[in-house]
Design the sequence.
């Protein structure tokens, strides 16, 4: 009996390992890419890890997740959402375990807790009052709670762009001119399409040549088909037209703890331009893109891509002699962003560090 | 300036063999022959076509629909033109005669092969820029017989962006005018000083159908008309013509060639060892500055920022790297990535407005703004010929529209690839905007280097006043 269960456990573990390996391989080959897909894939993988895991003390699970998380993150260090989701899951596990351990050891245990904020102080008190009776000796029962928590997280990921889109009508007024430069952002697309149901406005789309040009063109077609006046402009035209733009609406790859962000190349100059013209910059992002990292070294965050897109290889003689650069991302400092619209509401960049503290645990920042 | 090589010889072997034009010389001989043949064919075609056109009863066509139909043809022509331009820049081995021929034939196709359909009626103009009606382009077939062949050729070259850049266009125009003046005979009963201005005006009006006149061209034309008006009635026709042609030569030499040399001498000391000079698109005088600084043995590198749809910087980077300069090439979306390395930004100009605003290739303002933010000095180098008396506050009120179809191509190579937007004209809400210039505010500019010295952007009107006095 026991040997057979050990056997199935081993089998399960092997099974899990292949899943992790295939995820890592897909990340490395960029078959999974973009913050949203990476986030969902990571959450699903962690769901498997948790359901396969066995532990006697909660720290073992945390350690297990951390080890897996470290592997996942190192597969593609610049996909910050992968690490974000790992940290979210870790925070979730810690929270569940603290809840139960609180209720086990009674009210006195509260004092031993590391109280990081006034908010968590109030929250644990509140929870205690409610859940003091329903979980006794809940070590084994933790698993379904964690799994439920991860499933809620996946739901949140799936619905985040919808709930962001819900705020679009508040941000766009009738007859406004909007400029966007992140055509690969589904969040922005949904945001604009939702606004188009109630408002009539014009959208200028910077093409982000060369990396996102096709996406940008398809993006403009989608907007035009939805009845929005869509105008495609080249990246160079942004300055000349910025004076007529009401708002710049951007998507992002990652938001950093200082309120800065990483987005497709060209966004930094567009935000600067908006600043020069006093045009507000609105960034639409799911909270899952918020990373606890501080951008101490912005250069290392920027990935450099295929130079053949910049200077075609048919110009062979030129390619040989000239250094060609094709940065894929831009780091935009917080002072260039006016507001973040997230699935939890609108926040100013200076408030983002607070959201980091709410969503992640300090001890998990370094995986 | 070297680009002006083609029109130089196109205008019937001008007497000034500019050194860099040599590489184009044989090529443009072919071009000339091909163009002549083409023109003859077109004339013949036009005659028959005009017959047809007048015979046709004019239908109840709305003027707007007509204008747009025409606009679309012209945009198609221009699209063809720019494709051809890509071929040209891509490989210099393509005989330009062939390309010009292809261009010309596509122009005449555009005029006669009307592919009328309902979708022509969609207004594809961007509402903000409706006041800029750039696309009244007509083919050479519409030219009246008074238009000189050199002007016809130049119009085609300008329309297809083969001759591009305000100095190059100005030189080419003046050289074409030399040919016009050489072949001009004063009709009986009038004087040269009165009639030649008229005759030139007709040529200029036709030239305007290709692209609006550049500020340099405007300034040069104003000067030329002034010179013509003061020709004495007493001198013989031949003598007057010779004087004018010589004066044009002097003008080109003083205002562009010598001016450039002075600017280069002033600007080279701005570059020192270990510098990273950043520039945007392509300016002839900037190119000369870099080459000269390299020849002086200064160890520096150049970052060339470029943009769609012209990729002018590619040619610059080719010339600089051939000369052995260390170059970096990046498209404007990667600007902030390279700006942190730059030590000085050198910009060329199309024109400088009298309120100090720099009117230049679209994207220049972005570069200047980024530089200002990173505390990198921005130096504008241009001839004082580019100073305009006009004032302008933003890039919308006055600008030039390029063909929107240029944006459909998504390839950076010489062979255009139509992306997802190839059917954009059928989508009612979709528009493409292609403006050619933007305005850089004077606060981004550290100084302007001209042949009359280095000055802040605010001093442009001062220079203009001094000029008026002379």
Sequence:
């Amino acid at each position: 009996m026991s040997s057979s269960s050990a056997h199935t456990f081993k089998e399960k573990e092997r099974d899990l390992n292949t899943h992790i390996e295939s995820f890592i391989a897909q990340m490395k080959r960029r078959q999974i890419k973009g913050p949203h897909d990476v986030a969902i894939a990571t959450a699903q993988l962690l769901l498997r890890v948790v359901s396969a895991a066995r532990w006697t003390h909660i720290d073992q699970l945390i350690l297990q997740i951390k080890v897996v998380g470290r592997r996942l993150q190192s597969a593609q260090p610049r996909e910050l959402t992968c690490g974000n989701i790992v940290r979210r899951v870790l925070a979730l596990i810690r929270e569940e375990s603290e809840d139960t351990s609180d209720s086990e050891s009674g009210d006195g245990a509260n004092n031993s807790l590391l109280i990081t904020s006034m908010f968590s102080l109030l929250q644990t008190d509140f929870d205690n009052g409610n859940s003091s009776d329903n979980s006794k000796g809940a070590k084994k029962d933790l698993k379904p709670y964690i799994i439920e928590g991860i499933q809620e997280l996946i739901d949140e990921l799936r619905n985040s762009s919808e709930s962001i889109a819900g705020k679009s009508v508040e941000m766009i007024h009738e007859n406004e001119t909007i400029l966007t430069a992140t055509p690969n952002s589904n969040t922005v697309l949904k945001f604009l399409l939702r606004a188009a149901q109630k408002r009539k406005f014009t959208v200028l789309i910077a093409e982000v040549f060369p990396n996102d040009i096709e996406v940008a063109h398809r993006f403009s077609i989608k907007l035009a088909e939805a009845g929005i006046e869509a105008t495609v402009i080249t990246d160079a035209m942004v300055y000349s037209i910025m004076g007529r733009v009401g708002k710049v609406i951007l998507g992002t790859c990652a938001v950093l703890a200082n309120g800065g962000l990483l987005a497709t190349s060209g966004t930094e100059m567009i935000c600067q331009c908006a600043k020069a013209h006093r045009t507000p910059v609105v960034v639409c992002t799911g909270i899952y893109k918020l990373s606890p990292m501080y951008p101490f070294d912005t250069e290392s965050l920027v990935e450099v891509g295929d130079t053949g897109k910049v200077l075609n290889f048919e110009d062979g003689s030129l390619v040989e002699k000239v250094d060609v650069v094709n940065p894929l991302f831009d780091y935009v400092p917080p002072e260039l962003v006016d507001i973040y619209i997230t699935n939890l509401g609108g926040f100013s960049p200076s408030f983002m560090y607070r959201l980091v503290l709410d969503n992640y645990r300090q001890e998990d920042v370094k995986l | 300036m070297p680009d002006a090589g083609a029109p130089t010889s196109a205008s019937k072997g001008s007497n000034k063999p500019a050194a860099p034009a040599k590489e184009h010389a044989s090529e443009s001989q072919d071009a000339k022959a091909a163009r002549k043949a083409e023109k003859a064919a077109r004339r013949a075609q036009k005659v028959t076509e005009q017959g047809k056109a007048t015979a046709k009863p004019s239908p109840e066509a709305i003027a707007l629909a007509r204008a747009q139909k025409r606009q679309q043809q012209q945009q198609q022509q221009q699209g063809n033109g720019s494709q051809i331009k890509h071929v040209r820049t891509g490989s210099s081995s393509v005989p330009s005669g062939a390309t010009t021929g292809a261009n010309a034939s596509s122009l005449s196709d555009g005029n006669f092969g009307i592919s009328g359909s309902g979708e022509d009626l969609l207004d594809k103009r961007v509402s903000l820029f409706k006041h800029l009606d750039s696309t009244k382009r007509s083919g050479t077939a519409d030219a009246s017989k008074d238009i000189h062949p050199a002007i016809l050729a130049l119009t085609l070259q300008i329309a297809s962006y083969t001759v591009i850049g305000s100095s190059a266009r100005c030189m080419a125009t003046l050289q074409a005018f030399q040919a016009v003046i050489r072949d001009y005979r004063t009709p009986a009963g009038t004087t040269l000083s009165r009639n030649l201005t008229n005759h030139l005006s007709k040529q200029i009006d036709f030239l305007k159908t290709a692209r609006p006149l550049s500020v340099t061209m405007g300034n040069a034309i104003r000067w030329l008309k002034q010179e013509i008006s003061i020709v004495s009635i007493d001198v013989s026709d031949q003598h007057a013509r010779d004087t004018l042609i010589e004066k044009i030569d002097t003008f080109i030499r003083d205002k562009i060639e010598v001016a450039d040399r002075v600017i280069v001498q002033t600007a080279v000391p701005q570059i020192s060892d270990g510098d990273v000079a950043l520039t945007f698109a392509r300016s002839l005088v900037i190119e000369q500055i870099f080459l000269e600084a390299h020849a002086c043995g200064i160890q520096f590198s150049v970052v060339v920022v470029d943009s769609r749809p012209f990729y002018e910087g590619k040619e610059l980077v080719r010339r600089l790297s051939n000369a052995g300069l260390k170059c970096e090439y990046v498209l404007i979306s990667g600007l902030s990535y390279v700006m942190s390395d730059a030590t000085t930004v050198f910009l060329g100009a199309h024109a400088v407005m009298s309120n100090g605003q720099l009117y230049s290739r679209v994207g220049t303002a972005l570069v200047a703004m980024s530089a200002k933010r990173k505390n990198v000095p921005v130096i504008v180098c241009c001839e004082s010929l580019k100073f305009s008396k006009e004032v302008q506050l933003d890039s919308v009120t006055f600008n030039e529209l390029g063909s929107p179809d240029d944006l459909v191509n998504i390839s950076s190579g010489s062979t255009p690839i139509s992306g997802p937007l190839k059917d954009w004209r059928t989508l009612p809400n979709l528009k493409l905007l292609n403006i050619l210039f933007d305005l850089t505010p004077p606060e981004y500019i550290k100084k302007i280097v001209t042949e009359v010295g280095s000055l802040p952007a605010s001093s442009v009107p001062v220079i203009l006043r001094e000029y008026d006095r002379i």
